[in-house]
Amino acid sequence: MILDNLKPFLVVILLFSSSIHLAAQEKEKKSISETADKSATSQPIESLTFDKKSADLSEEQCPKIREGSSTIEKIAGLKGAMSVRNLTFKYFDKPLFSLTDYDYEHMKALKPICDNSSEEIAGLIFDSLKEKVEEAKDTRENTVDWIKKTSKKLEDLPLGGSSVKVIHNAWKEMENRSQEMLLTDLHYMANLLDSLLKKHYKPANTRGAKFTSPFVPPNTDYKTQR
Fold it and tell me: Cβ(177)–Cβ(139) under 8 Å?
């Protein structure tokens, strides 16, 4: 008798638990599907593989090899590291920092055709160039990380005279790293430090002295003597 009375409740409980299980399965499937989609879209696109047979090795490509070749050979022949500033030097119709593996192989194949140099010489030049460019890119990346960390640290400094000294020290370090960054990086950091110094100098200036930034030289009007 009691069992008969409980049957409707047992049926409801079974149906409810079954629906929860199915919903959980659907949610899990959806999660797995979304993860797979994200994984697929995040896969890196494979770079082009150079094929000498299908590459454009016509005479029309030679101006790209000849223009700036003397500078490229000087960079490739450097005993030490290449300056980060040279990353913006344009060769083969693009700045050095944009050159790809395909470009280097293309240039190796073109040079002997365009200036009658040997394949061995072309290989030495562009292998060395690639090595120096990649090294300069790594150096610049490290400097950009320093800029980001230093900027965050300085922006969080409390107002006052003690912070002014920290900003001055950051300026000195920026000068020491100046050849390890692009001019755009240098200008960004210099402007940031200058604006922060003005911000911190005002509350620290209890004597009311006129502020003159040591970072940005004042405009000077030169009068012509007659």
Answer: no
